[in-house]
Amino acid sequence: MLATLSFEGLAQQFIYGIQLGAIYALIALGYTMVYGVLKLINFAHGDVYMVGAYLAYYTCSVWLAGVAVEPHLMLVIMLLVSMCGCALLGLLIERIAYRPLRSAPRISVLITAIGVSLFIEYAGKLFFQTSPQPSIKESVNVFKDQIHLGRLEIAQSALIVLITTVVLMCLLWYFVTRTAMGRAMRAVSHDFNTAALMGISVDKVITITFLIGSALAGAGGMMQATSVGTPLSTFYGLMPGVKAFVAAVLGGIGNIPGAVTGAMIMAMAETAVKAFGYSNYTDAVAFIILIGILLLRPGGLFGAVTEKV
Amino acid sequence: MKMTRITSLWISAVFGLMILGCGCGGGSKDGSSNEGTGGGTALKGRELPTEPGNSAEGDTIKIGMIASLNGEQQPWGVDSQKGGQLAVDEFNAAGGVNGKKVELIVEDTNSKPEQSKTATEKLVGEDKVLAVVGEVSSGNTLPAAKVCQEVGVPIVAVGATRIDVTQQGGAVFRACFTDDFQGAAMAKFAYEDLKLRNVAMLTDKKLPYSTGLSDVFRKAFESMGGKIVDEEFYESGNIDFKPQLSNIKSKNPDGLFCSGYFTEVGPIARQKEAVGLNVPMFGGDGWDSTQLLSSGGSGIIGGYFANHYHNSEKRPEVQEFVKNFQAKYGAPPATAMGALAYDATKIVLEALKRVKEYNSKELLTEIANTKGFHGVSGTFDIGPDGNAQKPILVLQVQKNGFVPVKQIPFFVFQK
After folding, report:
1. CATH T-level fold of B60-177+314-384
2. Which residues pair with B132 in a beta bridge?
């Protein structure tokens, strides 16, 4: 049955779709950037997102539990802690698990990536309590109000998530296109060996890539966890990770604008399915998109056309 | 570099395996499997077992218990074990029965239906228990009930509310109410006490518990003259409910019935507030966890749900139970399952006092004859359908916990 949607209803659904898309995009960027420079699908990326959510939780509910902090400032602190913590984790993963395998066959690295993912999920259980309260305190209630735009009523959380994501993406765009390190990154993704011969420190570029990708995933994890309120578990990143991976493939893996576009398409498709009352097909739609894109255009939407990063 | 078709298919296959492998289905009180809520006529399929079961030898009477001591349902399992042990200890301290003492043998089901089956097989086969108590979830109880029915050992389920649990056969009983009753009771509460007329429902499609409860609620609420203006669905494990809530909001309901578990109800409450849907929420006993308070935030405050009893009730049974539980374990029971397991075990122990010979067959007959049982969760009979005919306690979610607001006496809702 098709739910009858008013114009306002559609507009609202559209905004919720973009909000979800923003989260997917933040994760998908990490997949796509790492693939760009290393040709490696970093399966552990979804778990970095999970750690980001946990760090946000620990920041506000454990470490700063007794400190009276202004809600907005608290959110900023949580965001920074999550991003820094995840950047560090990304760095460690790269150093410990992937760097020793730099010259190994790609399949070995791929399997290592799965190992890292499972390791974080299961070893994480030792440190992270399952299902603690979600990473926001009652005092931080900026997420529960609405903003009225004419007859439109928009959740404030959607706007906060959107604005933060746009800011982060602008920073990323500036970094990739306007800085020397960004140029080096593009060079490495273009041709790994030649870039090395040209005097680019490839290891440094790879480190920076992991750092940035993981920090973005951490930001995504923090924002999603704080706005939806779902209890956390060490498998928190699994589904979003898969969805974001599909988004990256959809946009053409290795392509930064492609990842964002793919994430938006994915999130829109999911939200539309829910909005029209077929919510039990939410996950199915993600995989239908994946199968479709692999069959029809394995390189992704932007795969074969533009320069990769 | 362009991804080849093979590589990309390979990668997606790996992802698929990872999802399958993680076993992240979540802690559902009903496990999965089996269809909806089963038939309405309760006596159907309650044939008495043909096998004689076990007999007690020596001075010890063995009673088995299956509980989720590990896995997602651990909080329920741990409470079950404590409640059951407390009942047995009190029974033995009071002299046991006829010079015999009771021994409670607890087996772990690890929150999994398969392990529930093997645990029950061990209890009835190796330990030769006279009766089995457990489990909390319907999903874990069903395989155990089948085993017990086959060998003729009575089983008293602790918290399995799905209607078809006791339809497995005459050896299966339960100490809790059924979803048929709690759905109808909440409909009545919504219509008569909350004065709601246009209610929207949010159902977890993945849980038979939730779909069944929603069905009964819809039928009961509509039969009273209320209107279900919208029903939206999600699946346990989902985290974003804003699209559904936004749809619901456009239908202008005056209440929202959520039949799922606290794991999703909390986030729903929070997001309900975010989309500006300001109506009261209410639901079933799947809400029973204090986790609801933290995950629901201010959105869940003022919500109502059906439960079995509450620690703060003034009835002497409750006060004494909470006092003894606290004295023995250092803290009051965290969920309602401590009391339900205590009651379930006590049903078996009371029946033991009435039997002439200590074997499963006699015990089964006497459990079926339970009348006017004074339990922590109320005074009740075991009906001919094997279900406890007991009242529901409606609790309100308040800032610091759950507060009882109304007791709804047992009635039969004709679907």
Report:
1. Rossmann fold (3.40.50)
2. B64, B155
